[in-house]
Amino acid sequence: xSDPWIKSLSYRQSLDGLIERFELLKRQDRxxxxxxxxxxxxxxxxxxxxxxxxxxxxxTEWLAELMPLIELPDETPGDSFNLLISYQLHSKSRxxxxxxxxxxxxxxxxxxxxxxxxxxFSQGFERGYQCISSxxxxxxxxxLREELATQVFALTFFTSPEKAKNYIEEKSLKxxxxxxxxxxxINLPKAADLHVRLGMAVLASQQVSH
Length: 210
Fold this sequence. Notes:
It is a single chain. The protein is built from nine helices and no strands. 66% of the residues lie in helices and 0% in strands.
């Protein structure tokens, strides 16, 4: 008898399975027991943070954060775990091929709206990054910390409309929030790519030193 906890699913199976769950849970009007928005973009943002970390992160470090988003009542034990772990592994493999699951939003006003795809992605990334921020702090060389902070700022920018307002006030910028959001949105793919590359570089340096 095969072990349901280690069942391997294809990328398409795991992606479709997660999307199907979100649709089913929405029809059931079920409220997830988490403050993260229940959406595929939230999963993608969270796993983007986990997969770009400068070390291999055990599923035990992050599964509990995402499980409440997708669990179904009376489901077969292990189904949610299999979906998430399979999707995470495929996402990491695709990330290494520079295939990033970033939202395709181009309208800055929509991007900063609560519950939008971009808002969900940023919230997911922020939560995932919180899980491994101490790892980044411990391994990132001093000369790269500012670069890391810039990347994280861009990737978490859309967590709240207030972030744009606070940044404009702090820097005394003559911009509207949507104008700043537009600038961040344009540069987000580059920030995401640089974040992945930074994680790979820090990991490689650690492996060489050992």
